[in-house]
Amino acid sequence: MHILVANLGSTSFKYRLFALAGEQARLLARGGSERVTDYSQAISHAMHELAAAGHMQSPQSLDAIGFKTVFAGDLTGCVLADAAVEQALRDTADLAPAHNPPYAEGLRIFRERFPSVPRVALFETAFYQWVPDAAQRYAVPEAWHNVGIRRYGFHGASHKFVAERSAELLGRDDIAQAARRLYLDGPQTIAGAPLRVISCHLGGSSSITAIRNGVAIGTSMGLSPQSGLPQNNRVGDLDSSALPCAMRRLGLSLADAERQLVKESGLLGLSGVSNDVRDIKTAADAGNARSKLALDVFVRSIRHWIGAFLFELGGCDALVFTAGIGENNPWLRTAVCQGLTELGLELDVTRNTSAPVETDLSAHGSRTRILVIPANEELVVARETARLLTARRDA
Ligand code: ADP
Questions:
Q1: What pTM does this model have?
Q2: CATH code at 290?
Q3: What's the CA dihedral at 149, 100, 67, 108 to 10 degrees?
Q4: Which atom of ligand 1 approaches the CA of 206 most closely?
């Protein structure tokens, strides 16, 4: 099955073409354009590149096009992306202003150019469909809840991959199989001891998700990707009184305050140096106090959520690090796991400094396995797209 994965950023269009046979995937081609102002042109360019490489003799060369859509309120899951999905993306763009308009536009362009090729949307919120009500609710008036002010959760593609892969690595093939088919069959009853995983997606944007038997039961992100851990330049969790208070004290308009929370906060706002952890670590090591504080706040927030989910899950069989920061920074993993030996979490110092590939970092005797599982979100989209199409063909 040939699946094109289209990644539409606010100023970029990137693609990867995969050949899938069951769970096996081969990357055939990748490419894209930066500084995009016209998605139609960028998509034409990509199609020419694919044709020149011999991958696009006709539209029939593609079995489907997959999209890692972010947010459309209660519309979620891994679904065929028809015109109604495009409209839902537009209708909910207020909460994902950087992501939804490009995806709505990209879906429309592909629909018009390749009407016979199925388009599949894998929503980042999809993994949280079965989170218990108590973990979805904010303590707001009922009317607020009824207009969608609730926790949704994000990075679903990445955390679902961790759910599948960690179950495989821990020898729980029953759970891995159920996790792979989660969006097709929903949660299944699993016999035996539950598998409890805490997945830390730490990158430009970060979140921590608690997973029981392959199903998410809670996550650090809430209504929007503005919440949870401090993000690269976005604020993360913030007391709701802070916004009106800062507006009054600094004389900010709502638009200015929102922009500062989205673009000038997070690790950038804290450090004053950069939104990139590498630069912040270099500055902290050179004695920059704000950079050191930024890293301390980040680590404290990670530990806060891990601690919450350790309780919620009643223990943890695997703590997983994934994405750019989680995979590549041994010092951060050391800081996160500091002093947890009595709770059953202990890093092996040597393994922790090994290359950023899939690795078991746990010390001999650590009750909780501490794993690095590299993220590959395009592959996740390709696999979910193939699973949906196969299930529909088999039905
Ligand atoms: P995005 O959410 O934009 O996809 P990534 O998952 O690529 O982001 O994560 C970006 C973060 O990961 C940056 O803070 C960067 O410092 C960190 N990072 C990426 N690669 C490395 C590396 N080789 N060493 C240390 N940190 C890295």
A1: 0.96
A2: 3.30.420.40
A3: 130
A4: 2
